[in-house]
Amino acid sequence: MVASQEKDAPLVSVAVISFNQKDYIGQCLDSALRQTYRPLEIIVADDGSCDGTRDIILRYAANYPGIVVPVLASTNAGVTANSTAAHQACTGKYIAWLGGDDIMVDDKIARQVAVMEADPLIAVCYHDLDVFDSATDASLRRFSEMNRPREGGIETAIRYGTFNGGSATMVRRACAPECYDARILVASDWLYWVECLQGGGRIVYINAVLGRYRRHARNVTADTSAARLLLLDHLMTCAIILVRMPCYAGEVSHTTARLLVSLARRTKTGRMRLMLLAISTMVAAIFISAVKVLLRLRG
Fold it and tell me: Which stretches are transmembrane (predicted)?
């Protein structure tokens, strides 16, 4: 049964990011098609897959014309460029992001839209995820067990980073930037979430498991060397935020210190130097925060 087919119900775009996921993309698209919410468009951005994923996407597009919309790159351009292609193809009031190997619970979209429609100041809405093993389908843990859920404004998003799972996140398209920042090669989603909040909106959390996040050998976060690259991407993001939004220098310094500690733990050479840099950065964060408090008290 379709739960919401009212004429004034806002269109939702499901933005699916795909690359060489022939074993998973069908299950992903099926979960999007099973959503109880309508109207819905499913934008499938494929980054030059060469394993048969494109053929599967085209078959779904033929079977569900006007609903499944393929955006196919001729060559592999990377996750940031592919995410931009997906974003720019979306026409809905809201965009629900989904990895091509992840799964939505049937009423996910309906529940997120209800929350966002109730408060126009909500720019980003996310929920908990069931993290599961791809080979056995066994649940491993909840996403919230490793990433404490948080709510708030842009300061929260900058200070604590990507506490929201990408495949759990819905954004208000009017609040989102025009594209992902091409300078960040892989982990460009954090800056995207931050920019969604730049206009004064809030990020809110639904305390329910409304999706499944697949763990398998090809996950970027499963590779130690790739994890270091993600940390470097996040440090690049800190630099970009500091230049664009210097008023959040305290929050940026706090996050930078935490990232440097994580990078030091994954680095054999120069570890002590990174730790000392992290300590000095944290001291700077504390100093900046103290100055802000004093200025507010005087004001």
Answer: 274-295
